[in-house]
Amino acid sequence: MGHICLLLVTRIFNISAMKALSYQKDIFATYFVLFLLFQSCNAVVDLTMGVLGPWNTSSPDAFPFWATRTLGAVSLAVDEINNAGILGDDKLLTFAYKDSDCDSKQASGSTVELYSTKQVSSYVAPPCSTPCRSVSDLTDFWQNPTIAWFCAETERTNDKYLVRTYAPFSSISNIATITMEYYKWTSASIIFPSSNTWESLAFHIREHLDDNNIDVAWFYDYHQPLSLDKAKEILQKVRTVSHGKMAHLFYKLFRSGVRTLSKEVIRLISLRESGQGTPHKHSIK
Questions:
Q1: Which of 6, 140, 173, 177 is 20 to 30 A from 151 (CA-CA)?
Q2: Cβ-count burial of 108 within 10 angstroms (0-12 exposed, 13-18 middle, 19+ buried)?
Q3: What is the pTM of this model?
Q4: What three-state secondary structure class fits 217?
């Protein structure tokens, strides 16, 4: 940036000096303008990144992504980039945050506001998938780079300016099938919270299992929050409807809805209720 600016000043000087020599009264004004241009070459350029995310929306899917939980990480990352000089000595990265509320209309309005008032040159898209699509449409039209850090239900393959840090569900849902085939398991139950995000992943998983002739013994969604009594009821049902003692529960989907239980307690309950084993050192009532 500095070298280009200096070449530009030099070119302007050559042209202006020749003209100014024929008008002596203008030569001082010409030098003054060139001095200001030269000073601007040494100025630090601020690059503003727009960050969109839910502040504290009531949507259960958005809880892990609340800005009250994640925005501090953005500040730390920006400081690290600037301290490391990744963008060069003449550029300083800053960021401006706007609430997307996990709502497409709100996210679109916030994006336009950042673009028009903050001169934002790049974006971090909201994590919720529908607002992420709306934002990426706008930023792709403006040709502004955009990072999607979750946006798991959005497959976007034709956006030139959108990059991901997390693969879409359509790309990872075959993991369940691969795992089942590796261990030669033939039956599975899929339990998931009743929400758009987890429903999308659950249906993708079921589609892959069906395509590979793996039986889905039970496909069930529950409403959050999940109580301990309800968790026991679900696991007892899994044991009943699945094929023998080889019923396999996708613990990650199940665990996502249980916020009051530890992973170890969930594992022990699951082992006992699905009939795969009885804890020896722990007692769960």
A1: 177
A2: middle
A3: 0.61
A4: strand
